[in-house]
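Pinned message: reference record for DUF4178 domain-containing protein
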Amino acid sequence: MAQDNSQRAYRAPCPGCGAPVEFRSAQSTHAVCGYCQSTVVRNGDVLARVGKMAELFDDHSPLQLMASGRIAEGGKDTPFTLIGRLQYKSEAGVWTEWVAFLQDGSMATLGEDNGAYVFTRPIDPGRVLPEAARFRLGTTTAINGTPYSVAYSGSATLIAAQGELPALPPLGQPFDMVELRSADGDVLSIEYSRQPPQVQRGRAVRLEDLQLTGLKDESVREGQGRQFNCPHCGAPVTVQLSTTKSLTCGSCQSVIALDSGVGGELRSALQDEPVSPLIPLGRVGRLEGVDWQVVGFQHRMGVEPGDDEHFGWDEYLLYHRKRGFAFLVDSTEGWSMVRPATGAPQLAGNGRTAKYLGRTYQLQYTYEAETTYVLGEFYWQVVRGQKTSNRDFASGKSLLSLEQSPKEITWSSGERLEARTVADAFKIDKLRNPARTDDPGPFVAAKGVGCGTLIIVAIVLLLLVILLSRCTQCDPRVENCSSSGYRSSGGSYGGYSSGGGGHK
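Predicted structure (tokens):
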């Protein structure tokens, strides 16, 4: 284990069963006995049993206690070891936070953040914080001179824990939680389970960059697949992913919510009018130099304010064991690959531009979105009929989207992809048909097209304009002047807005 020589581990028998309970950090006040699940509190060299901890929900994460790695901070790598695990539940589902003990004796948290990971450390906010209700969604506040946008405000509950832990919230009792995000990619969480509130600040990390060792073997994960019967049709359903919060039954296509993990209360919602994804679930494709597996699919519909014409797009949820989740989006504007952003881009006062990580994006579309069909597994509680308010921004091939639900604002960022890149990655010949999905980007004349061809195109366009003008002026009693509305682009990028929604 990575620890400094000045740190001294303390071990004592569990007051509940007598098994050894070890404290590696002087900052740890609680521990959960690995044998009898007793929650013990440390007072000096004395342990006292204060209750029993609920069983952990097995999320099949590659992480486990005593896994170690290195975090790059301030130009140097600091070794750390995972010594504790906490599981929380909110309106959006269950998530896990790992307690990291660093070589310098400090403690940090490696937690889930919208399908990715974020490494956070406790900080002093520098001022007395107001009550959670004062933080209104979408407003801006400053912490230590840095402006943050309020991305989430709600309640959470500690439902289970394991290992060595800092001061714990009361088990099973809801407490307020607020999340703030900055335009520089920082995330700041405020936990109101105690006074003064606990404040942590961090940034997104990739597990592969943490140089982790001691992870669970893939074979162990496969051998412990979670199974249960569909609450609608009774067919067997298997949960394959870590952090899955909802999935669909392969037999009846019902959407199943895992509110309390497998074994807890299961709710289902039946889906009709099945949609067939172009890329099958389970297919593996290589993008950004790694292999991604398609684990989820959702079809979404959008409509612009004041318009009655809807447009649709598809989103494929991709999973990589160490990089987490990403979205592959198929819309009328072409293909793109996006991820939820840890930070919150800074919106201009008029809402026409957004700045994120030094780049300025221009507003393209504003629309209301609704999820109409889902397949596979999801790290948030997806439900059919889920609605959000969306705004799409672009800067060249770079994309940015804001998605707002009643309790959370989620930003996503990504890049456009050529259809051929997607087709080659997932071995799908159907995507090569340019009539199906054009590659994104402005129109340019094809190589080898001469001036004569361009003149012919111009003449054809002029004739079309004349015909349309004639049609608007004709007398329907004499001529056939009927016409039908047609929108070539669907009116929206429709879905670089992914991110799933759902806190944590």
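Pinned by admin. Summary line: Residues 451-473 form the longest helix (23 residues).
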